[in-house]
Amino acid sequence: MKKVLIFILANFLICLQIVYSQNITENSLPLRAKNFININFPGDSIETVSLYKNGEGYEVRIKSGFNFIFYETGLWKSVRANETNSTIPRSCIHKNMVNTIDKEYPNSKINYIERRDKNFFIILNNQTEIEISGYGLIVNKRNIN
Description:
alpha+beta, Inhibitor of vertebrate lysozyme, Ivy, 9-stranded antiparallel sheet, 3 helices, PepSY-like
């Protein structure tokens, strides 16, 4: 009975993955997404692109170890550095946000950024998560150790 249940669950998960995403080519990405990668990660190449069928957009991985989620329009939703020595370039966020982070957390590196409504959630290498507005105002901060 356990083997049958495991078989059914495994098949369900495979079908779920097929229904919710499919691999596509780099050429299928919106121009806005391709431009974002080319400007902020010059010389890097795209490894994989997946399209989410439920309208969430695209997931992209580049060779240097960064993952991106893009909305259907090509605007980035999140950027993640997968390597421990990798850092997200500050050019990915607004200059006001960069100035605030440099002032409040000098020498910090950005490991993760996510857009949520009108604010951005940023995780720094010192295990601090900040919620910051596009104008550079810190709305909330917490230690995530």
